[in-house]
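Problem 12. The chain below contains 200 residues. Write out its predicted structure in token notation.
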Amino acid sequence: METSHAGTSIPTARSVDHIGLTVPDLEEAVAFFTNYLGCQVVWEFGPYGNDGDMMRRQLNVHPEAIARIAFLRMGPTLNLELFEYSAPDQVKQLPKNSDFGGSHLGIYVDDIEVAVEYLRTVPGVVLQDGPNLNTGDTDPAGLAFCYFLTPWGQQMELVSAPAGMGYEKRTLKRSAPPAEYWQNGPSEHASENSDLRRVP
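Solution.
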């Protein structure tokens, strides 16, 4: 008889640790995320691979694949793991949002108009139409959004819902809230008596 896991989670799990993205040029991606999106490089590693069948067994990629990695902190609640691969069977076209495996990374902002105008000044960023506001008697009503592409074509999104969303009227369930402020961790210059609000 199969064991039912309905409504359960992974034993001892505490949080989502990171999101991983494969990029065509690691240096370009690190520069973009650190220079324009406020990320901080925590550690780097590689080249990694070229050891028999290890890459297939560990990472589900071609055995001859080689990876370089940069691990970034992106604000108070998210880590971002960037991979640059070389592999004999590599597909070099990024999926659209409508493709299987398509994905995007959403950033909550307090003022989406200001955030969109900022992105217009960032070299290589391609903005889709927006900001767009969901209206009417729908669950996402009140959510403003604007999609954009990084210089190498990664899908990303700005979102904002300062007045709340439609679904909040019909249920007590809530999506995880945004942090009160954007910070990549405790300041190196903050003392124990500092009134700076810290992220554990």
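Discussion. Strands lie at 19-22, 40-49, 66-74, 78-86, 105-108, 126-127, 132-133, 144-149, 155-160. Students who got a different answer should revisit the alignment rule from Section 12.3.
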